[in-house]
Amino acid sequence: MKRIVLLMEYDGSAYAGFQLQPDLPTIQGELEKALKAIYRTPVRAIPSGRTDAGVHARYQVAHFDPPAELQKFNPKAALNSLLPPDIRIRDFCYREQDFHARYSAKERRYRYLIRLEESALDRERVWQLFRPLDFATLQACAALLPGEHDFTSFCSAQAEVEHKRCMIHHSLWQRNDGQLIYDIHGNRFLHSMVRSLVGTMVEAARGNTGSRDFQRILEAKDRLAGAVSAPPQGLYLMYVAYDPPLEWEKESV
């Protein structure tokens, strides 16, 4: 049987991240609970990456190996009938066993949203800031990131990886209707890396440090160099790229 690949979106506000955790609600826990109800046996779901507690996804990819073939089975309809409303399956396709949601990914894209005024409705989906930020400083910090760097200074001490070098393809701030929008694309991201980058850039743009200090922290390759983490609710996983593209992408071209 072929591997089933899911395109997911979720509001991470109520969850302790994607990855399974004992006695805590997680995206993976809800997805595997639904899969177990369908197949009547435990099924492991593998994501493209493990988003942190409170982080959202507009485009998360996950795969699983079906333990049985079900007639007239539509994974999207079946799973959405069992998942909570803040987790949705947007689409699905079938791939061979050599496809892996995490290891086959070529690029990941994240977006961070900051609102510069109070909002009752968006408080769980943006970082609300009430002090002016120097936009030129934000842009100067972001411009330092494209290329390959060691991001030890901007990752959690819990990150258990062979190395902490990432290739950044795109890093840019934009302003739009009372919001600041930060987009970053790269081949891989470390635990808490995007939040640490954003938080440290914001500190620089508040006038507390500056783009030169941001560069110093980047080059220090030391988690104790002074990086500051932004809160999780403004962060979104926006896209995961594969080569060849997944089937739903081919249909939309």
Give a verbal description of the structure:
Strands 1, 2, 3, 4, 5, 6, 7, 8, 9 and 10 form a 10-stranded mixed β-sheet that branches. The protein has 253 residues and is of the alpha+beta class. It has 2 domains: 3-103, Pseudouridine synthase I, catalytic domain, N-terminal subdomain (Alpha-Beta Plaits, 2-Layer Sandwich); 106-238, Pseudouridine synthase I, catalytic domain, C-terminal subdomain (Alpha-Beta Plaits, 2-Layer Sandwich). Helix 3 crosses helix 4 (193-205) and helix 3 (135-142) runs parallel beside helix 5. It has helices spanning 27-39, 75-80, 135-142, 193-205, 211-220, 247-252; strands spanning 3-10, 46-47, 56-64, 87-95, 105-115, 127-128, 147-150, 165-176, 179-186, 235-242. It is built from 6 helices and 10 strands; from the N terminus they run βαββαβββαβββααβα. The model has no long low-confidence stretch (mean pLDDT 93). 22% of the residues lie in helices and 29% in strands.
Helix content: 10-25%
The termini sit apart by 27 Å
Portion in beta strands:
25-35%
Number of strands: 10
**Gyration radius, to the nearest Å?**
19 Å
Strand and helix order:
EHEEHEEEHEEEHHEH
- Number of DSSP helices? 6
CATH architecture of the largest domain: 2-Layer Sandwich
Could you state the CATH homologous superfamily of the largest domain? Pseudouridine synthase I, catalytic domain, C-terminal subdomain
- Coarse structural class: alpha+beta
Low-confidence stretches: none
The largest sheet, given as strand count, sense and whether it forms a barrel, is:
10 strands, mixed
Average residue pLDDT: 93
Domain module count = 2
CATH topology of the largest domain: Alpha-Beta Plaits
State the CATH class of the largest domain: Alpha Beta
